[in-house]
Amino acid sequence: MADPRLVYDHDCGFCKWCVRWMLRFGSFTPVSYEELTPDQKARLPDEYDNCMHLLTDDAVYSCGEALEQVALRCGFVLRTVFGLLSHLPRWERIRERGYRFVADRRAIWGRYRACDVVE
Length: 119
Hints:
Elements: E1 5-8, H1 13-25, E2 29-32, H2 38-43, E3 53-55, E4 60-62, H3 63-72, H4 76-85, H5 91-103, H6 106-110
Parallel strand pairs: 1-2
Antiparallel strand pairs: 1-3, 3-4
Helix pairs in contact: 3-5
């Protein structure tokens, strides 16, 4: 089984910083929007460039759900925290709104946390 592919916006310094952080704690293959193969693009939603995605062999996770799936693969602490959060009423709505809040303000967060390369 191949490592899940973590799809991100290569033009966003904050996004690259987040991916770099995720790679420290989990096993993923980072793939920028520009590096997507035609087969990978075909698996993504039409407006794929408005959030992150996690591609596994058998599923596609997007936006907040992708972040949750990444967190579940990043060690005991995050797995426990997100496991507990998933029991909250309306968790999916909270997760997606939280993701959108951060994603829509990437330029602001990028002033504090950003990097030029993912390695």
